[in-house]
Amino acid sequence: MYVAVKGGERAIENSQKLLAEERRGDPAVPELNLEQISEQMTLAVDRVMTEGSLYDRSLAALAIKQARGDLQEAIFLLRAYRTTLPRFGASEPVDTSTMAVRRRISATYKDLPGGQVLGPSFDYTHRLLDFALAAGDNRPASEIADEPVDAGMPRVTEILDHEGLVEKEDPDPEDAPVFDLTRESPRYPADRSARLQNLARGDEGYVLALGYSTQRGYGGNHPFAGEIRMGEVAVEFAPEELGFPIEIGEITLTECQMINQFKGSATTPPQFTRGYGLTFGHCERKAMSMALVDRALRAREFGEPVDAPAQDEEFVMAHSDNVEASGFVQHLKLPHYVDFQAELVTVRALRRKFEDGDAEGSAVADAAE
Amino acid sequence: MTDTIDRTDAVSAAPTEAEGYNFAYLDEQTKRMIRRAILKAIAVPGYQVPFGSREMPLPYGWGTGGIQVTAAIIGTDDTLKVIDQGADDTTNAVNIRRFFAKTAGVATTERTTEASIIQTRHRIPETPLTEDQVIVYQVPIPEPLRKLEPRELETRKMHALEEYGVMHVSLYEDIAKFGRITKSYDYPVRVNGRYVMAPSPIPKFDNPKMDRMPALQLFGAGREKRIYAVPPYSDVKSLDFDDHPFSIESWDENCALCGAADSYLDEVVTDDKGGRMYVCSDSDYCQQRRDAGHIGDGGDPDYVAGRAAAAGGAE
């Protein structure tokens, strides 16, 4: 006699105990602490903060530890926590021209005010596994430069701006409403602020692939990496009761300004156009990809044909979020046997009709009736 | 034996987890925003109301829309039932019930008749619902036209202009190709003679239950950020053609456990030689029938054959 399966609750509890055990691994190996993750897995922490849209290194480190190093799961954890936090308001716009720069490079000028500052970068490492590192870290201490980094480090787009060579970008009025993607449902056509929010939170791999596709001809826009800068900027907030902004902290940002193919019109002389990327921490690949896709999504604005995936706003925005995507793809492992049964009934009925030689499809009632 | 889930267990397993969170997890501002969306949805039956869906601590696609709707309407005196595939004991149903037991501390039940709110995925209970109940559907894709037109910009226009020709063409193409409408679940309906609506992936067997249902029907799609509703006693008509009227699934078999001939059946594979039996997908309905003394054949085909013969083969 068949007995219906019961006991989902205990199965779930046991599964979670097993999960905790797997997370810990061999108990003979010392347990990771959050400082180790935050200090030595810095770029993982940066990615989780960026896509999790929450700037908190220790919480991101906790999420990474709890997620067993699965960064998408860690992003999900951070998002689910973030959503419960009260909103005090929006900060003042951060000013990246006052950034305490740790890295700043431009591919459009050999030299420029402030110079090229390589900073910490994988760029010119030979990708050779460092077996010495396996035994322990014996790195040579980095040297302190004779002079500090130039205080005046204008953004490359500002240099072009002097000649009117790049499209002008006027800041929104002070009291312009800030669209909040996490509080409102997206509307199409979306404005650029909504698109940039979406891309900033978007999955790095997805944004990378879309950016790459524009380089291979699917909506190309001839980009130059005008500037990439990474460093610390101050965050200011104006509490209502004070009426003036105060500095509430400092965050690390990576910013990418892409300079793209020029446009002109009857009223505007030809000038370069912009693509913009910004991330928390040091997520350079993401910032660059984001800038490419931002520019591609501005196709309509410049009267370009919209025929490539990266230019298709609804396609790009609706599928960029890895918490949404991961949830919906993985929901397929939830039971679907009711729907499957409905399909079985239909397919069996169609097959019965086929076997009865009634394949040309005359009007028939449900064969199961 | 009590049908109510022992909440103390769930809570004692994680005594502090819900601390620091508001009743039913969502903050009151968010609940208010969701309630406004629900009211609008009730006022315009079948219309998909965009809402500021929150990021829930459960994955998108796993019921975040239904959970938010339930969280917005649940109160301390409510009794919650959660089903997935018709059953209270499927893992995702257990998990969502645990979530509310933990964050709202409300009474939960497996009995359809005892529940004031029923959150469901993929089924409508067999026991008819009453005016005192609300059924909350978890919806993966709220847009019935999505498979025909992927763009939101377009589908919103089509709804606004009541331009549903493409849906009828798609159903007709089925008939041309297979001789019948082959859509077996998430079968499109028209609500109150106006909006074409996705009933969520319930089998079409359940569609007739939606029509003029005394209970309020709410639909939540978290990932797609939409809420819609069917007010009590509204007309819900499954799309069809005069010469191809809508029809529902039926089985030659009855439930092997309770003998029900009128309920939606799950097929259970019993061996690797083609052996199978059918049991009610609605686990509460099945249990109630068994408690009332009904018994099925236990999956014995001879018993079925014998009974069918006795009944003159007219099953």
Oligomer: heterodimer
Count of extended strands of chain A: 4
Question: How much of the sequence of chain A is in beta strands?
Answer: 5-15%
Which structural class fits the helix and strand makeup of chain A? alpha+beta
Unreliable segments of 5+ consecutive residues of chain B: 1-17, 311-315
**Structural class, from helix and strand content of chain B?**
alpha/beta
Low-confidence stretches of chain A: 361-369
Order of helices and strands of chain B: HHEHEHEEEHHEEHEEEEEHH
Question: What's the N-to-C terminus distance of chain A?
Answer: 28 Å
| Shape estimate of chain A | globular
Spatially, the strands of the biggest sheet of chain A line up as: 1-2-3-4
Integer-rounded radius of gyration of chain A: 26 Å
Instruction: Give the chain pair forming the largest contact, with residue counts.
Output: A-B, 61 and 80 residues
Main sheet attributes: strand count, strand direction, barrel closure of chain B: 7 strands, mixed
Account of the protein in words:
The complex is a heterodimer of chains A (369) and B (315). By secondary structure, chain A is α+β, with helices and mostly antiparallel strands. Chain A has 13 helices and four strands. In chain A, helix 3 packs across helix 4, helix 3 (42-52) crosses helix 5 (71-82) and helix 8 (192-201) runs antiparallel to helix 10. Chain A starts with 7 loop residues before the first helix and ends in a 14-residue tail after the last helix. Chain B is of the alpha/beta class. Helix content of chain B is 29%, strand content 16%. Chain B has a seven-stranded mixed β-sheet with strand order 1-9-8-5-4-2-3. A three-stranded antiparallel β-sheet of chain B has the order 7-6-10. A two-stranded antiparallel sheet of chain B has the order 11-12. Chain B is globular, with a radius of gyration of 21 Å.
